[in-house]
Fold this protein.
Amino acid sequence: MVAFVMATISVAGCGGGDEAQVAPTSSDVAVRDTATPEAATPEAATPVAATPVVIEGPAFSVGDAGGAVGSQVVVAIKAVEVESLAGFKMTVTLDPKVATLAEVEQGDFVAAFLFVDNIDEAAGTVSIAAIADKAVSGSGEVAKLKIELRSKSDTSITLVIEEAVDEMGSSINIKPYPGTLSLS
């Protein structure tokens, strides 16, 4: 199964300081899970107005964030209401002239998984794969992407979910939901 998730980096209209702004996804996104996700960078977090989106699982959802050119933002990829997730493989792509994937961190939801990532800065991609012998169900953070904003141009972040499987190796249907990055 292949699914696409698009998130847009809007870096036009640069002005202001060097602090990153992170929109709180829990207050702007209606999710059946009652857990409140933590802001990606609490010290620099500033709410950004967003249109509420109802996310129905099973899904992978890309969070929203924004910042100034030269700043680093953190974008979470979250699982929402998944059932028996035992493995996944995905590729994240963005324009390396506009933004750079600096680091990938394993999310708490898949903490027991063997988690591997491979960043190719020149191509603007990161491949992420994870597998476990015991599946997880529910909602939580799968990965955090640290992204450096480099240019006053617009670009998209593309998430391709190449595979998601249960403990028996059977495919799981996971719906994608987009997130956005914008310049303050």
